[in-house]
Amino acid sequence: MAKTLYLMRHGETLFNRLHKIQGACDSPLTERGIADAKQVGDYFRRAQITFDHAYCSTQERASDTLELVTDQPYERLKGIKEWGFGVFEAESEVLNPKPDPVRRSHGDFFLQYGGESDLQVQARVVKTLTEIMERPNHQQVLAVSHGGASFMFLRKWLSMDEIERRGIVLHNCAVLKYRYEAGQFQFDEVIDWSARPTAQIN
C-alpha cells in the first residue's frame, strides 16, 4: 500500500526578504512567514489531513514553521537541512552562479568554497526521506525542509523539462505531495493552500 509524504518548505525568513543566500546559516521567520505557516496548518485541518509522524530539519526556520503548522511531536533531522553554500552564506543572491548547462543547477560550484554540490544535497535528502518512509507505522508523514534541498529531491523524481512544463515553483511554505511505495517516490502535486476561498492572513 502506498504511503504519502507531504514535503513542505519553511516560511519566509528575513534573509529571504533581503535576498540573501541562506543555507547553513539561519534567520527568523517574518510576519508573512508566520502567517503563511498558520494558513498551511489551517488548510490541513480543513482538508482533514492528519499525520502519524512529523519531521523537520535541524534549522530553526524549519522547526518554527512546523510548530506553526501542527502542535504534534516531531523529530529534527540533519539529513533534510538546506544546501550548504560555504563562504557564500549570508551574502547577496546576486553572487549565485549561472546554472551548470548540463546539470541545470549550481552543480559543483559551491564545493570549492566549502559548500555542497547539488548531487551531495540530493543524495542525503533522498536517503533521509527514504529511511523515514520505511519506518513502521509511517503512512502519512509531514516533513519541513528548505527550497534548495526540496528542489534537489524533486529533481530525483522529475526531469527539469517536466518541472518546467508543469510550472512547479517552490515558494515559501510550498507543500509537495508524494506517494511512496517499494523504495520509490512519485510526485503527485504542489498543494495550492493559498487559493482557498476561506484563506485569511492572521
Automatic annotation (TrEMBL):
SMART domains named among the record's database cross-references: PGAM
Pfam family, one: His_Phos_1
Binding site for substrate: R9, H10, G11, E12, T13, L14, F15, N16, R61
Xref: InterPro entries: His_Pase_superF_clade-1, His_PPase_superfam, PG/BPGM_mutase_AS, PGM_Phosphatase
SUPFAM superfamilies associated with the record: Phosphoglycerate mutase-like (SSF53254)
Gene Ontology terms: cellular component: cytoplasm
A single GO molecular function term of this UniProt record: phosphatase activity
Gene3D superfamilies registered for this protein in UniProt: Phosphoglycerate mutase-like (3.40.50.1240)
Signal sequence interval, chain numbering: none
PROSITE patterns, alphabetized: PG_MUTASE
Protein's name according to its UniProt entry: Histidine phosphatase family protein
